[in-house]
Amino acid sequence: MSEELETLFKQNDMAQQRMRIGELQGQVKAYEFVVQDLKAKYEREQEENKALRLTLALRTDCESELRRSSGEKSPGVEDLEIKLVIAEKEIMVMESTNKELLATLNNTRAQLGKILRERNQKVKEIEQLEEALENMETRHNRRPEELNREFESTSYAANIQLLVDELRDQSSRWAAEKVILTKRFEETEDDLRKENEKLKKQKEDIVNHSNNSEKMWTERLKEISADLDRLQTRQLAKSVKSEKACIAETEAEIQELNRKLKDAVEAIEELELANTGLQKQLDKANIKLVKLEIELESQQFLVKEQNVSSAESADYKLQIDRLLQEKTKLDELCESQQRDLVEITEKHTQQTITFSNEKAKFCHDMERVEERWNNEVVKMREHHDVMERMLSAATKDAMDEKKLFEEESCELREKVEELQCLLKDQQRQLETNNQETQQLRDQLKEARAVQATSNKEWDDECAGLEDEIYELMDKRKTEAKKMRTMSRKNMWLTKSIRNLSEQRREELESKKSEIEALTALRNHDEKEREELMIELESERKNCKEEISTRVKMNNQIVDLQKKNEELQEENEELHKLNEALEEKVESVTDQWRSECEIYENNITFVTQKHEMEREDAIKKIQNAKKIEEKLYANMNHLVKENQEFEKMLKTQRREATELHKATVELSKMEMDNLRMLLDMER
Q1: Backbone φ/ψ region at 253: left (φ over 0), alpha (ψ -120 to 50), beta
Q2: Rounded CA gap, 288 and 112, in Å?
Q3: Is residue 449 part of a domain?
Q4: Where in the sequence is the domain holding 237, given as residue range(s)?
Q5: Measured between alpha carbons, how far is 44 from 375 in angstroms, rounded to an integer?
Q6: How many structural domains is the chain composed of?
Q7: Which residues have C-beta within 8 Å of that of residue 267, sequence separation ≥ 6?
Q8: Which of 232, 349, 375, 504 has the fewest CB neighbours in a 10 Å radius?
Q9: The whole model's pTM is what?
Q10: What are the tens digits of pLDDT across the range 292-326?
Q11: Residue 616 lies in a domain
């Protein structure tokens, strides 16, 4: 009796402790989800850093090209440069659209990853349910064996050894579970430390990149200042103001670059703040993990104390009622869990099939679009390279013509000394015009007008140079024709780029609509998950209520145990009285030998009384045996019912294994499809 009650109490305590462990495992899973969210944030920040670096590199390249082309230019080159800048802007727009598409692809991949994680969680939950069913089966299998052993063994020492063995098994199981949990916590800590190290390394890389960029800009500024000093020493007074304007432009560009560098530094500081926030969150997660370990150790200590301090007594009737109630509850739980499993598996299979089909279509469309745009970008780059080559050739021709013109002017200065006075007058006129005008374009126009007047005067005075001038004019006409053809090509390129950008925007709108549909599906899935969580919480509350009722029953059992102890004490007192009576009988027999005649009547009375008491005791023993036989019959009936229940559990387990196999096959098919899609994307 007492040993059976001890086993029942232990089973109740173990169930409560498993519930607590399940809650702790749920908290651990929640912390794992938090860590995954932090990892996703970290990856997003990395992508943003890469985008910033790419933009800085593109800006530096563009600014270096502008500085190279900021020297002396022939007429018509400025228009081509403006058109090239427009084309580059349009190319940037196309690249930004490509980035947006890549971002949408990454978002869809993240959503797919979340769905797969949720599916894996459901599979884990199914495995946990299967383990719980196996544990229940083992319990029901153990009960008849333990009962047979208890009925067969009459020695109390054997029962104590069985209890000690069970306690050792439980302690070994708890130790194994503790080792597993410690390993998991250590793995999570190692992962978090590695992530912190990666963040620190990236921070160092960003700081080094910023320092190197500052050094590069300082070196470039020094080179520009040296070039400006050289130009100031070489050129004449005519080009003083033009050089000042160029210097002002360069200073403005330098200010813009400094502003951009400040923006980049601010972005780096923001990233550092975000990294500090992530580190704080990681520290909090580590503290919570330590608290969970402490709670697990305290619960293990309580389990040991409860196993040591379990009481020894119970009534067969309460035990039978309790077993019947547990059996009915277990039947209801198994039926509800089977229904939930069937519904969840059906919904999950339908969702996975629809989503995999949509994903395959979407990925194929995106691959085709990427191939088209990559081909178009390659074509645009080829056109851009051709234009740059044409520009470089035109600039080289202009520089060669300029050198020839300077050589001819030097020869004319040597031959014609009379023109020095006129040149001085022209210099005075140029100084007055430069003081009046402020803008660079007006200065260039006036300089060209002055050059035209000077050319006319030189034509009047030097008729022998007309043939050379006509040749130069013919060359300029040919250059103008070339520039016109280049402008037409640029117009055609701009039109084609605009058409392509419009097509890309239309495609983006269509993709946005598809993305919205996918988000709607995801929201629907989230709603269903919330409903499932609400149902699980209601079940958890019901379990808590059942536990409270069990605690009340335990208290009642303790009271009954106390009453049983009192009855045992009364039986001991009666036994002592019987011993005293036997002693009295012996003394009476001794006296009967000595005084037979005097005490015959007393002896007969005492013997009759003793016989009556013995008959009452025999009747009580017979009644107790009948009660025990009835209880044995009830226990055999319960054993049969337990066997039937085990058969039902075996059938349910087979169905659960079949469902698990089906889900595993579906998951394998989905993983194969995902791998095929990833291979196609690569």
Answers
A1: alpha
A2: 29
A3: no
A4: 2-416+462-681
A5: 28
A6: 1
A7: 52
A8: 375
A9: 0.18
A10: 666 666 656 655 665 655 555 456 556 656 766 76
A11: yes
